[in-house]
Design brief:
- The relative contact order is 0.13.
- This protein is mainly α.
- The two termini are 39 Å apart.
- β1 and β2 form a beta hairpin.
- It is built from 4 helices and 2 strands, in the order ααββαα.
């Protein structure tokens, strides 16, 4: 069998096998376990918003929650800590005048509520699906 034929056969088997597997075991959210609309594993939209915004699960569906949504509060460009809206992103009181051995920190979201629960779950249970889903948010 020619190399190109073998490559296309392997590709077809992977695609077909993946589709059959999805029929038997539909993809679910690595966070809450709800069914995902697409074939891509990871987090559902509700969990993704909860992780990145730091909104508690009980507050996510309440229109009057007053919780800070991702993007409304600035973050320090060096340490990724939340900054009040009145400070520019390069004037963090935690970093001011300090020299770090790194250039920058990137955070998925505030370490509270859902993100905190997921990190603890990864540490205790070695949850590879959840670990991969959070890693994709950082990428």
């Amino acid at each position: 069998m020619a190399r190109t034929q073998m490559h296309s056969t392997v590709k077809w088997l992977r695609t077909t096998g993946s589709e059959l597997l999805d029929l038997v075991f539909p993809p679910v959210c690595a966070g809450c376990g709800d069914a995902l609309n697409g074939r891509t594993p990871g987090l559902c939209e509700v969990c993704r918003i909860g992780v990145t915004s730091g909104v508690a699960a009980s507050e996510r569906n309440r229109p009057d929650s007053g919780s800070v949504v991702a993007g409304q509060m600035g973050r320090c460009l060096r340490c990724a800590m939340p900054l009040p809206a009145v400070l520019p992103e390069d004037d963090c009181i935690r970093c001011r005048g300090k020299r770090w051995k790194f250039g920058r920190v990137v955070a998925v979201g505030p370490y509270q509520h859902l993100l905190r629960d997921y990190v603890i779950r990864i540490k205790r249970n070695s949850d590879d699906g959840l670990r991969q889903a959070l890693a994709e948010l950082l990428a």
